[in-house]
């Protein structure tokens, strides 16, 4: 389970509740999780690549490509909810 916008960014209990929300989480494989960790958890910008795949990138456009069912698990029917919530978090925090 990966928090797209990391819990460590929480500066208050309110922020913690915003970040520890299912809309901020996806299942990814350990290899890509390690790549994000090595980039200091900066890959917080979610972009939908197609109907099911996505990228997580930082502000310098360093991308981690995630392919559905290969190294990414989530409910594709909820992708618009995840994407909108990610935009809200990135504009709020």
Description:
- By secondary structure, the protein is α+β, with helices and mostly antiparallel strands.
- The protein has one domain (about 1-90).
- The protein has 3 helices and 6 strands, in the order βαβαββββα.
- The protein has helices at about 15-20, 30-40, 80-90, and strands at about 1-5, 25-30, 45-50, 55, 65, 70-75.
- The strands form 2 sheets. Strands 1-2-6 form a 3-stranded antiparallel β-sheet. The protein has a 3-stranded antiparallel β-sheet with strand order 3-4-5.
- Strand 4 (about 55) and strand 5 form a beta hairpin.
- The two termini are about 20 Å apart.
Unreliable segments of 5+ consecutive residues: none
Number of helices, where a helix is a run of at least 4 consecutive DSSP H or I residues: 3
The spatial strand order of the largest sheet comes to 1-2-6
Shape: globular
Total tally of structural domains: 1
State the helical fraction.
Answer: 25-40%
| Main sheet record | 3 strands, antiparallel
Overall pLDDT level: 97
The SSE order reads EHEHEEEEH
The portion of residues forming beta strands comes to: 15-25%
N/C terminus separation:
21 Å
Alpha carbon gyration radius:
12 Å
Extended strand count = 6
Structural class: alpha+beta
Features:
globular; 32% helix; 3 helices; three-stranded antiparallel β-sheet; alpha+beta; 93 residues
Summarize the structure.
The protein has one domain (2-92).
Q: Helices and strands in order, then pairings?
A:
Elements: E1 2-3, H1 13-19, E2 25-28, H2 30-38, E3 45-48, E4 54-57, E5 63-66, E6 72-73, H3 79-92
Antiparallel strand pairs: 1-2, 2-6, 3-4, 4-5
